[in-house]
Each structure stands twice: as C-alpha cells, then as structure tokens.
Design a protein that fits this description.
single chain, about 325 residues, alpha+beta, Deoxyribonuclease I, Chain A, 6-stranded mixed β-sheet, 4 helices, about 20% helix, disordered N terminus, nuclease, Endo/exonu/phosph_ase_sf, endonuclease activity
Length: about 325
Amino acid sequence: MRASFRALLAALFSIGLLLGAGTGPAQADEVTPQTAPELRFVSYNVCGAKCPLPEATDAGRSAWVSGLVKEIDAWDTDLIMLQELCYGQWKLIRDALAGRTGEDSYDTVWGASLASASDCDQWDPVDRRFGLAIFSKGAGSIVAGTRSVTFLPEAPAKDTEDRILLCARAELDARVARACNTHIDPSDAATALQVPEVAKLVEAGRQAGEPVVLAGDFNQVPGHADMNSLYNHGTGSTGRFQEVDENDKEHFTAVDCPQTADRCRSGEATASPTCSSHTAGTAKIDYVFLSYEWFKTVRGDALPCPPGMSDHHLLRGAAAWEQ
C-alpha cells in the first residue's frame, strides 16, 4: 500500500508538470523546461501544517518530498522559496537535496515564524517549528554569514504567527544575488503595513548594486494598491521590480490590461478551489519579483495541484540576465 501510494503521488506530480508545460490552454508566454530562459525560480506555499498528509507515515512523508524534488529537478531550479513550511518537513527536503553531488546539490537557510504549530506534528512530533526556507542550487552556494530574518510590522489585531522576511546572498549562475522570501499576513490592515516594509528592505539591497529575487505568498492581488511599492509599472506603482508572470496575455483582462500591452500587473491564479475546498476564491497571490535592472525576458507559470501536496499552486518563473 505504501509503495503504491508513493508511485501514485509521483505519477500525479508528473501529470501536473505535463499539464503545466503546455498541454492545457495556450499561453502567451509559453513556459517549458525546454524553452524558458536559463535562470529558474520556484515559489510555493506548501501548507505544511494545515494540509494533512494523505499518509502521515515515513512512506507518506517520503512521497511528498519526492514529488516536490521531482518538480524542482524538472524545472532545473536555481532558487526555491517555500512558505508555510514545518521544520521537520524542511529537514527532509534539505536532506534530499543536500545529499547529492556537485551542482545537483542545494544549500539552504531556514527562518521560523512560529515556535510551534500543532499540525506540524505530522512531520515531527517533537520539533514543530513553522516558517520559511530558501534553497539555492549548488553546494555552498549561499554566502556564509548572510542569512537575515527581519520581523515585519503587525496590524493592531496581531496574528499569532510572526511575519518575517528571510534573506540570504546566494550564487546565481556564477553571480551573487540577494534572495528573499516572505509570507504576508492576509488581513488588509497587515498587507498595507507589511508589503511596503518588504519593498523598503529589499530596495536597500538593490540600491547597493545587488540583483534581487523576492518571492513569497503576499496574500494580495497584483492590481491592489498595497502592491504599488513593488511593481515598476501600472497605475500608482512606485517600485523597481518586475514579476515573472506579468506578460501572459491570457490574463490581461482588467480595464488597465489591454491586449496591446506588453506587460500588466496580472498573472495566473496561484490559489483556487481546484487546490483545496477551503479556498473560496481564485486569485494570484504568490509572486516571484526580480529587480528590473538586472533581469530580462521574464516568464511565469502556475502548475496544477496534485492531490495531497498543498492548497496553493506551485509558481515557477524564469528570466535571463540583463547584462
């Protein structure tokens, strides 16, 4: 039974990859492992605590990790940003990726946003920390001593989870970039405080001349005013970033997103009822932002949801160096 479950989950993940690679509706910015630019990114809210494993056993945990690793490898991913990640879950992913040789290995940093989440006991009944992680391709690719965790401002009705920005300098295709990952509180009062603070923090790195990759679950849609501080285009924008899925014309549906535009604050949904019955609406709330001066030819795609993986779509992105 355990072996058959593992095989089924791996097959479902492979089917999801094929659907995301172009067998579904035609995309204006076709994103496949064969045609995408060479720099590859993944942002994924993995719902490690609230989404129960189909089988909370060693075999079930191994199957989940194997499914994620297959997707990471199929995309030849350089930087991976994971949110809602249990510490025990992170250790299993870390061990699966770090135990490989050469460029197939991954370096990683972790940041806790909650000291204990009861539902994380499906990954480790003792250490139930909950938070974020960054994985960077290549053994030792994260620059030693550059990990930082910054606590974000909270709304008056404070969430029980600390909202943080996790960053580290990482080697990206023989250059060094600042990689940052966050998970913004879903309340309107909190996003209004936290998104501009994240923009200010990553802007400091950009002004220092570093390429910046910022990813995460922002719990806000692209056109909302809270996102103005990140985007460098669109009504009210004051930021310096582009987003990987901003040029998919299939999603140019708003009044300020005409089909004649080259890019728009839009994108494919990353949260939808197809992933979880607990998700009421369909919206893009997960992002991979890239500093505009350093990257070009951005592409993005949200993959289907294999059962038992998460209540979010995995967002994968790609770009090339500007110079």
